[in-house]
Fold this sequence. Notes:
By secondary structure, the chain is α/β, with parallel strands linked by helices. It folds into two domains: about 10-25 and about 80-215, HAD superfamily/HAD-like (Rossmann fold), CATH 3.40.50; about 25-75. It is built from nine helices and six strands. The protein has helices spanning about 25-30, 35-45, 55-65, 70-80, 85-95, 105-110, 145-155, 175-180, 205-215, and strands spanning about 10-15, 100-105, 120-125, 165-170, 180-185, 200. The longest helix has 15 residues, at about 145-155. The protein is globular and about 45 Å long.
Amino acid sequence: MTSSMGRGRLHLFDLDGTLIRGSAAAVEISRQLGLTEEIAALEQGFLVNGMTPDEFAVQAHALWSALTPEQVTAAFEGAPWLAGFREVWADIHAEGGRCAVISLSPDFFVERLLDWGADAAHGSRWPSVPFTEPIHRPGILDAAAKVAIARRLCAEYGLSLADCVAYGDSMSDAQLFAAVPVAVAVNADHHLAGLSRHAYAGSDLREAYDLVRKDAA
């Protein structure tokens, strides 16, 4: 899987609902604690009822008071990851591109993707597990923060937003989709309707990536 489209581009990936299909870091963590109903109620508050990301984090932090590092590892390794994303990242790297993950989920989960080949991984700033400190609300990311982080990464890599490709699935990706020239809606909800150049439904990121490759051919 080689092409010239990756050269010089920064590919920006959402985590929840995108790299993780049909689930989210919070859901997978809560499953380890036997708290699936409780996190479903919080997700409903965030996705439907307008709960802010920082309030979601505060309530999830309280829900996860007994969380251990071993449970975080189990949640990460057992998540329903899209097939092929490490191969996609390897291809992007082979062509001189970069791969970054930007997610509202906790940094202690998101940053594990650095070991799987991401050049950068940015999540909301949470205290270390097990928790001995509260949530610092200003450290919790929102949709606008995704764009700000993308701009910082572009500056670091000598690129601009015009050199970016974004992959996402929901309202937290809308501002980033509007800021970059190429966006791929991956198993997306209605919030991204009309904002993406490509749409993909399935379980293999290689297929979504091929849409971008063919577009650049």
